[in-house]
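Weekly structure sync - notes
Attendees: PM, LS, DV (DV joined late)
Agenda: review two folding runs queued last week.

Item 1: First target. Sequence and structure tokens pasted below for the record.
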Amino acid sequence: MKKVTLFCMLLTGMLTYSQIDINEDFESYESGTQPSGWTGDFETTSTFNNSSFFRCGSRSFYTGSTSASTKIFTTENLSEATTAADATVTFNYKIVAMNLSTGVKIAPAENWGTFVFEYTTNGTDWIEIGSINDDNYTYNEECHSASYTIDAASLPIGSDFKFRGSFNLENVAPVTFVYASIDDLVISQSNSLSNAEVNFEGFRYYPNPVKNTLTFESPNMVSSVAIYNVVGQKVVATAGNNTMTTVNMSALPNGIYFAKVTIDGTEKTIKIIKE
């Protein structure tokens, strides 16, 4: 059943915390369909016996029968979903070939290719977290499991999040189709309070979007604020040392920026929209 939860991060200018939470077992979808908002070449399997050899459950998400090619699935975009915590990615998968003449299920050909998994926080730059290939996969008619961790440092607070898998089939035996499937995909991120969250309790910033002056307020001392553009260049910086700090953004071009705020030695990065 589809279980994708996104908690709103920003509410009336107060800093709260969301999390990435994707949980898909694909059981509730009809054959040939995808979860809402997902895109790409993969589709939900049928429940018929003739598909059982490439499924991990009564339904899985798979490439369909394929010869040498690349097939991709991409999850829906989770807007402003990330927190200051590691994200874990787990799933089951299977890669299997079938001889079209005999109907026998066999291991994929040697050097069959790769099954690559990536994520993005800006919709453009994809970061690989793992790859399945001949070196770490041995066909044995069973589903295998995979687990990866995305470091919190790679997930700026309040960023968008999308995940994708790319099955790149490079070598196929004659008269053979190859199937790749994935199931029980879980991507989760803790929203429990760390020392940073404690230091930032009661912190707020406004207005957002901003035209001229951006204000930061906190019960604790704001040590500094630095504004960065989307390519990571520092465009404005100010020393705080007060419970209220303002930044003049009137000279900056309209667009998306990130404010790095330091309070009591801990930092938070916040997405800002300049209008």
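Item 2: Second target, run right after the first with the same settings.
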Amino acid sequence: MQNAPSVAYPVGRFSWPSRFALVGLALLGGVNVIGLAFVWPADGGLSLVLLLGVGWGLWLWGAGRQAILCPAGTLRWDAQAMGEGWAPGAGRWWWQEEGRAQPMPVCHLERRLDWGRGMLVRGRTEGGTRWFWLSASLAESRWGELRRAVEAQANTG
């Protein structure tokens, strides 16, 4: 998937499809913990189930907090980007946060979750690791281009 087109894609704070995905994960995890409580032997197994439940709850709290605090802006793939240390024509991601004057380069954008109409991707910027919830509903006409760009970057670097 080399030669993906350049694309600028809006990143929202936390879209409704992403909320449904997070709620679905929460319900699935809760059902699993409850199921373990009934299946696991009563001698010492219940404490492990409680520990798993607390761990799942903490993960869910952290994921929800991160999703809500996720910044809004524009994620841009420049297919023709060239610069020091970059392969010519390899392409480059840029992050333009709302309210910031200059875009930041994003190193190694990687897809962590993909459910067809949405993606959770992680990238490294000069400000640290950033998580981006991407939803097709924010720019339907550019969703395919964005997906091709994420795939192209994954194949080149």
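Discussion on item 2: Strands lie at 7-11, 73-78, 92-97, 104-114, 118-125, 128-135.
Action: LS to circulate a short write-up before next sync.
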